[in-house]
Specification:
Elements: E1 3-9, E2 13-20, E3 27-30, H1 34-47, E4 50-57, H2 64-84, E5 91-98, E6 101-108
Parallel strand pairs: 3-4
Antiparallel strand pairs: 1-2, 2-4, 5-6
C-alpha cells in the first residue's frame, strides 16, 4: 500500500491531505469551493486512488490561495510517491470526452512546470 500524508500550513491556508495510491477512488474532499471539490473528487475517482483532503483557507480574501496550496500539497505527494515507488510513470497522455468537454492532456512529472490553457468564452 502506498499512502502519502501531507500537512501544509501557511498564513492563508491549513491543509491536511492523505492519498492512497492503491485505493479504489473513494474521496472525501472539503475545500469549501464546490467546483474545486468536484474536480479533485473526479481526479481520485477516475485515477482510482483515495483522497482525504481537508482545507481551511482565507476564502473571504480570494480563492487562489486555497487552489495554489492544494496544488502544491498534491504535487509534493505525487513526487514523494514517485520516489518511493518507481512504478509511477513520469510521462502520460490522454484524450478524454467527459460531460460536454473534450480534454487533451500530456503530462510530465519530471519537475519542470508549464501550463497552456487557451480557454475561450
Amino acid at each position: 500500500m502506498l499512502k502519502i500524508e501531507r500537512v501544509r500550513k501557511t498564513k492563508e491556508t491549513d491543509i491536511s491531505l492523505a492519498i492512497d495510491f492503491d485505493g479504489s477512488g473513494d474521496c472525501q474532499v472539503t475545500t469549501n469551493l464546490p467546483f474545486f471539490d468536484h474536480l479533485l473528487s473526479s481526479l481520485g475517482k477516475h485515477g482510482r486512488f483515495d483522497i482525504d483532503l481537508k482545507v481551511k483557507g482565507d476564502l473571504q480574501v480570494d480563492d487562489h490561495h486555497v487552489v495554489e496550496d492544494v496544488g502544491i500539497a498534491l504535487g509534493e505527494a505525487v513526487r514523494q510517491a514517485q520516489a518511493e515507488r518507481g512504478s509511477i510513470r513520469r510521462f502520460g497522455s490522454a484524450i478524454v470526452p467527459m460531460d460536454d468537454a473534450l480534454v487533451l492532456l500530456a503530462l510530465d512529472l519530471g519537475g519542470r512546470s508549464y501550463l497552456e490553457a487557451p480557454i475561450k468564452f
